[in-house]
Backbone:
């Protein structure tokens, strides 16, 4: 069983930065993808970026240049570094790990306002 725990959300002013963490535990298998998503009320979860166990990353166009996904192998944590945040980045952010099973974390709130 895989467990994902997000942390690092909070409130920040426009132009600010936050780093979200996704702590991964359990039997992930050898091939999987960890992705970050976000959701606002009434809307589906939107994919932002992903990191594969074989070392590739990809980003949606609207976060390129502002968000970076990275993994710390020592702690088995996947980070989402977010810079130049905008009010429209306000959402609940989730990490997901999919491989042999599909797993989601509980989410962490990010609020961007002046």
Residues:
């Amino acid at each position: 069983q895989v467990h994902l725990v997000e942390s690092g959300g909070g409130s920040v002013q426009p132009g600010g930065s936050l780093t979200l963490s996704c702590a991964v535990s359990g039997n992930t298998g050898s091939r999987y993808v960890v992705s970050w998503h976000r959701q606002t009320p009434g809307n589906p979860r939107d994919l932002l970026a992903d990191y594969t166990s074989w070392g590739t990353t990809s980003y949606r166009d609207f976060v390129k240049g502002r968000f970076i996904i990275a993994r710390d192998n020592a702690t088995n944590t996947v980070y989402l570094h977010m810079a130049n945040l905008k009010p429209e980045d306000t959402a609940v952010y989730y990490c997901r790990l999919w491989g042999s099973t599909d797993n989601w974390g509980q989410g962490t709130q990010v609020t961007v306002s002046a």
Q: What stands out?
A: The first strand starts at residue 2 and ends at 7.
